[in-house]
Amino acid sequence: MRLWVLGSGSSGNAILLEAGDTRILIDAGFFPRTLAMRLRACGATPESVQSLIITHEHADHMRGAAAAASRWGWETHASIGTVRACPALANAHAFRASDTFSVGNVKVQTVRIAHDAADP
Predict the structure, then answer these.
(1) Are 44 and 18 in contact (CB under 8 A)?
(2) C-alpha–C-alpha distance, residues 43 and 11, integer Å
(3) Which contiguous run of DSSP H or E holds residue 80?
(4) Are 11 and 51 in contact (CB under 8 A)?
(5) Averaged over 65-89, what is the pLDDT?
(6) CB burial of residue 85 (10 Å; 0-12, 13-18, 19+)
(7) Distance (Å, whole) CA 70 – CA 110
(8) What backbone torsions phi and psi does residue 107 show, to the nearest 5 degrees?
(9) How does pLDDT run across 38-74, given as a tens digit for each residue?
(10) Residue 120 near residue 113, CB atoms below 8 Å
(11) Which residues have a Cβ under 8 Å from the Cβ of 70 and sit 6 or more positions away?
(12) Between the N and C ends of the chain, which has fewer C-beta atoms within 10 Å?
């Protein structure tokens, strides 16, 4: 398993997780052009990402989410509250805290955290 922090801070957040041939982007807080540039810098292409998981609806975590997912066909996952708080995520797979789901060969276990967001 490998992990790259593509950005962390108020200007944007994104993490690429790679496990075998599965690539998951956690948050997309940058516009698609910037996401593509940062993915390529770590040897990945936007087209190689299977899934996007949004942690919550703040712009620095989902600024480019809807546009990037649409452009590159990423399956998107977000909590029910995050989907409700952000109409641009209407097509996302909504989950409840403590749900599990799989993306390729990765099993994702969701957890609720304390944060000033709808359903982080």
Answers:
(1) yes
(2) 22
(3) helix 80-85
(4) no
(5) 94
(6) middle
(7) 24
(8) -95, 125
(9) 999 999 999 999 999 999 888 899 999 999 999 999 9
(10) yes
(11) none
(12) N
